[in-house]
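REQUEST FORM: STRUCTURE PREDICTION
Request ID: SP-0412
Submitted by: Lab K.M.
Chain count: 1
Length (residues): 416
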Amino acid sequence: MPGGLGARLPFYYGWIVLACLCCVGFARQGSAVATLSIFVDPLTRDFGWTRTALSGAVSLGGLLAALVSPLIGPLIDRRGSRLVLCAAVLVNGAALLLLALTPSLFVFYLLFCIARMNWAGPFDLGIYAALNNWFVARRARASSIATLAQMAGLAAMPLLAQFTIMHAGWRAGWLALGAVTLLIGFVPSWLFLVRRPEDIGLAPDRARRAGEAADTSRDVAEARFSRAEALRSPAFWLLVLYTVLVYPVQAGVSLHQAPHLIERGLDASTAAMIVSVFSLMSGASTVICGLIPRRLPMAIPLALTGTLLAAGTLLMSRIATAADGYLAASLFGFGIGGVLTLIPVAWADYFGRANYGAIRGIALPAQVLAQASGPLIAAAVRDATGSYVAALYGFAALSAASIVAALAAQTAHRAG
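STATUS: Completed
RESULT:
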């Protein structure tokens, strides 16, 4: 789009950018764990692979994402998200299509690890770097919309895979996922993504009036940290600490929630309904996060998120009835919606959008590795003790510690 054309549109071009990011976020879920779970049974049946072997592809993909994220972040800051996101969609689409030809576990690992690496690294960095460039005053609202789109993809992609597998087999399932990934994720981003509002004569959140200066007082004041300055800031490490504390809880409880409910005496149908309520409450929390006033310090919703996670995991450890399960899932779901929506906003609020990719690229490996550790911790404790209760107590303690980390990060940010 030629510079200045954006200012002549009857609406803010950032909403088009957000729509593109929603499409990419939806398409991203073709390599989500929930989508892979649909293929576990047919793959183990046809090839005799163990479930542990299949799960290893997820962990290895996350490790690869931790390695590449610090390299991708500065590229996004220089060139914008369009190149990285389009490349990620193309690679993921091709990998999913080629998975239909899987002849061995080695080939499966090669293809799915690449797709999973993109899911955990380039997609995350590209989506939120673009979003935070275009929105400042409306950043939380835009983040909630983008997160909802990703949740929609997380619900739709497994259903698409299941429907296709039932009618045409698992190879056709991979083909369907690859085709949808390319169609929905690539075309809008290639055609309409723009690096920053300033590139087309706009300001964040709104059209800039003709002749208006770039640093007008009408714009929301922003932090502007370099990567080196961020790394020297205590707020950076406290925000990393917050992330490392909440993401094992998010992944560990989410994956093992259903088997824990069944072990507590609930039938499988009730457990499935409770997991559905958890997902619905996560979506509701995402919407509510978009309504948080921007004048409210980010530490408050982050600390509240930690409180909800702690309360939800504690209650989950003592479930005796279905009502207990629904209440625990509701509290925990609200907390998870806050984690997914608010953490990208907090990084941009604390350190600005100019070097968001480089700064978040350094922090993202900690998030990815923490997320990967949660399911392993829960499984190991379950195997050692015969139940998930001790793991849930540990997750509650991590959640409680995250409250302190969130408040300390805000104090350090103000001091800086």
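NOTES: The chain has a mean pLDDT of 88.
Reviewed by: T.R.
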